Amino acid sequence: MNRMTRRALPLLALPLVAAAAACGSDAEGATTTTAASQAPVTTVAPTTPPSTPTTERPTSSTEPTGINSYDDVQPAVVQIVAKGTFRDPEIGYADGSGLGSGFLISDDGVVVTNNHVVAGAATLEVYVGGDLDKSYNAKVLGVSECNDLAVIKLSTTDDMPHLDWFDGDIKAGLDVYAAGYPLGDPEFTLTKGIIAKAKAGGDLTGTSSIDHTIEHDANIQPGNSGGPLVDSEGKVVAINYAGGAQVTTTEQFYGIATDLAQPVVEQLEHGNFESLGINGWAVTDDATGISGIWVAGVTAGSPAAEAGLQPGDIVTALNGLPMGTDGTFKDYCDVIRTAGEGTPMSVEVLRYDTSEVLKGEINGDKPLELSFSFADEVGDEVGDDSDAAAPAYDYASVVDDTNQIKVALPTAWTDRDTAPFDKDGVQVPYIAASTDMDGFINGFTAPGLLFAKLPATTDLNAELATYGFAGDCTDGGISDYSDPVFTGKYQVWQDCDGTTNDVVTLVAVPADASYLAVIQAQIATDADLDALQHAFDSFDSVS
Question: Are residues 485 and 535 in the same domain?
Fold first, then answer.
């Protein structure tokens, strides 16, 4: 028998550093941008109590807009209050209101805004032209996360003022005005600037992937998202959606140009387009090697919802292609555009809270399910050979004495060791638990589990051999292991020392190969196999 005096285990839940900021580049170099999204979900709706939203169905009219100047656009610009449950990687779940802007494009109440303003919302309440005495409910006609555009329709029979699209050439130096309701303020705001670049890069934010954007210096803030950027005649030159880096002394901002937005809007009036129904953004974390599309919200009834995606999930791969590795939506949208509307796509998801890796299909018949389970992989080889079912365990998180690692373990395993040990002059974080530590560490009579965070190594086969049990157990073979964070190998040892008990050893390294994680579990019953799975789902390197 060759046991680690203090044994080990890693897996899959290093703290993810994620934010709405994303890195992209235009033709002239790297630019960091942030979505000019709705104000934080803690922002409250306009303070003046609104009247009960109207419920009549809209009717159409062909009256002209009567808007021929930038200073006449206010009546056609709206504030959108999106209520629901969204998930931010830094603050977690938030039930409340997010605020964004939009603008009317027809007299029967059709409004254009950004996808990240409305997608996944439970309710939408809209205030028109800064009038707080009346609000309208709205329904979503169509969304597109790849273009960060959405079209909604107000519940009104009134003839509504609306804006027309700019149909001239967009050139640097064109005077423009950003209209909207920034920072959750219900009072209309209009700022002036010029077009700095007519065709900046299209992958500047982690919330869309388009051919190009308009770069301008008319100041926008969170809450301006979805609002119009108009010319001196009040025509919509672009749809504001992102703030960006400072160039010399002037901060630059970005909009979706009318030549790109208008055909997409026409599609969205009839349903979703280039969309899986996700409200989210690209995230990357070099320390853990995690990258993907963070899911902040999911539109009900969408392909993403039907597949089982949840707020807080990270889409790590579509059709086998890793997502978000460059901090943008580009790969995500390229796959969607290549596959086409309604086409089945394989998807891999990291469920961040539980550290589970799920696989399935979007637009297919394979819902998300756990992609790696030792119970599935080795369940026929290890566990209870009797017909009697062992009672299920309750679990609690255990942290080592150095506060570097933690894992969920059965509360019934009260014999524990959480002190570090010395390995070649290095203090190794360590946790072990069992019903009987001596029977676990020095024999094969008691169930138990341990893990340690060891110095880095690249020779995983040699490491597995260090913790082998030749002569005491039957070698069940070595298998490869991988997930979005770790790669490694595991070995099964069966019927140890004349018992029906088994041992599983896993060795794995994170993407940066900064350390070695080792797990060993002794399994006497199927409940012990479940304890091993719980450990894999909850293991976390705290530091």
Answer: yes
Give CA–CA dist 96/278, Å, rounded.
Answer: 18
Q: Is the pLDDT confidence value at 1 over 70?
A: no
180 vs 239: CA distance, rounded Å: 11
In a domain, 214, yes or no: no
Q: Is the pLDDT of residue 446 over 60?
A: yes
Alpha helices in 171-298 (DSSP H): 258-268
Q: 506 lies in a domain?
A: yes
> Are 327 and 390 found together in one domain?
no
Both 343 and 413 in one domain: the answer is no
If asked whether residues 292 and 437 sit together in one domain, one would say no
Q: Could you give the dihedral angle defined by the CA atoms of residues 65, 68, 73 and 77, in that order, rounded to the nearest 10 degrees?
A: 40
Alpha-carbon Rg of the chain, whole angstroms?
A: 28
- Cα dist from 206 to 92, 113, 203, 294, 489, whole Å: 19, 17, 7, 10, 34
Question: Do 392 and 366 share a structural domain?
Answer: no
Q: Encoding tokens for residue 189?
A: 């705001």
- Residues with Cβ < 8 Å from 305, sequence gap 6 or more? 277, 298, 299
**Banded model confidence at residue 379, pLDDT cuts 50, 70, 90:** low
Mean pLDDT (whole number) for 135-164: 94
Residue 350: CATH number of its domain: 2.30.42.10
- Which pLDDT value is given to residue 510? 80
Q: Choose one of 310, 340, 374: the last residue of a domain.
A: 374
Give residue 30's pLDDT band: very low, low, confident or very high (50, 70, 90): very low
Q: Can you read off the two tokens belonging to residue 463?
A: 């490491």
**Residues with active-site annotation:** 116, 148, 225
Give Cβ neighbours of residue 358 (< 8 Å, ≥ 6 apart). Answer: 308, 313, 348, 349, 350, 351, 368, 369, 370, 371
Whole-angstrom distance, CA of residue 528 vs CA of residue 371? 20
Note down the domain range covering 499. 382-541
* Structure tokens given for 98: 């997010």
Is residue 352 situated within a structural domain? yes
Rounded Cα gap, residues 254 and 240, in angstroms: 6
Q: Is 359 exposed, middle or buried (0-12, 13-18, 19+ CB in 10 A)?
A: middle
Same structural domain, 405 and 493: yes
Q: Domain tally for the chain?
A: 2
Q: Which token pair is 56?
A: 């009549």
Q: Do residue 531 and residue 391 come from a single domain?
A: yes
* pLDDT confidence tier of residue 538, bands split at 50, 70 and 90: confident
Regarding whether 439 and 356 lie in a shared domain, the answer is no
Handedness of CA 375, 379, 382, 386 (dihedral sign): positive
Two tokens, residue 327: 């901090």
User: 3-state class of 179 per DSSP?
Assistant: strand
* pLDDT tens-digit readout, 181-229: 998 888 999 999 999 999 998 887 678 899 999 999 999 999 999 999 9
Does residue 298 register a pLDDT over 80?
Answer: yes
